[in-house]
Amino acid sequence: MRNGPLGHRAVKLPAPELLLVEREKIVDYLLNPSHRYGASKARFFTAFGFRAEAWEVLRNSLREHGQRGEVTQVTETGFGPRYEVKGELATPDGRRPRIYTVWQLDRGQAAPRLITAYPSEISSPNTTTALCSRATLPAPISSAETWGRSSTSIPQGWPMRPNSPP
């Protein structure tokens, strides 16, 4: 299997109708504002209307993202191939931010499982509108307002790809 970017070939995930997104991955990680690595992701996803008490909505959107998005990179791991998928995410508030999802097809399993999801690269951390193909925010939101930090404490080059939880 080839490691790295796939170039211009359109590649989809294997067994897309069986993609696995576990409740714990969403509730305990992606929508958990107290999680060491997931807190910034929780702020991102809740800003688009996702809620832990209705975790299935994010699960369904992530599965759709994995089914429709294109694989941009494949990396062989000791457990099997890991796929990075880029595309738009359907959200409760109607906006469609561009995100990456990472899926692992463990050896002996029928379908990939979600490892993580995070915002696609943006041109500026000072506005959330850059993340959306259909911007509907009333005004740009400063990074300090969005992330609850002073603008000087935001990591340079945000968004960073925090490691997935073990």
SSE diagram, text form:
Elements: E1 4-5, H1 23-30, H2 39-47, H3 55-68, E2 70-77, E3 80-88, E4 98-104, E5 113-119, H4 143-147
Antiparallel strand pairs: 1-2, 2-3, 3-4, 4-5
pLDDT < 50 runs, ≥5 residues: 123-166
Per DSSP E runs of 2 or more residues, the count of β-strands stands at 5
What about the largest sheet?
Answer: 5 strands, antiparallel
SSE class? alpha+beta
Strand sequence of the main sheet, in spatial order?
A: 1-2-3-4-5
Mean pLDDT: 78
Total discrete domains: 1
Helix content: 10-25%
Elements, N to C (H/E) = EHHHEEEEH
Provide the CATH top-level class. Answer: Alpha Beta
Instruction: Identify the overall geometry.
Output: globular
The CATH topology turns out to be Nuclear Transport Factor 2, Chain: A
CATH architecture assignment? Roll
Strand content: 15-25%
Determine Rg (CA atoms, Å): 16 Å
Termini Cα gap: 24 Å
| Alpha plus pi helix count | 4
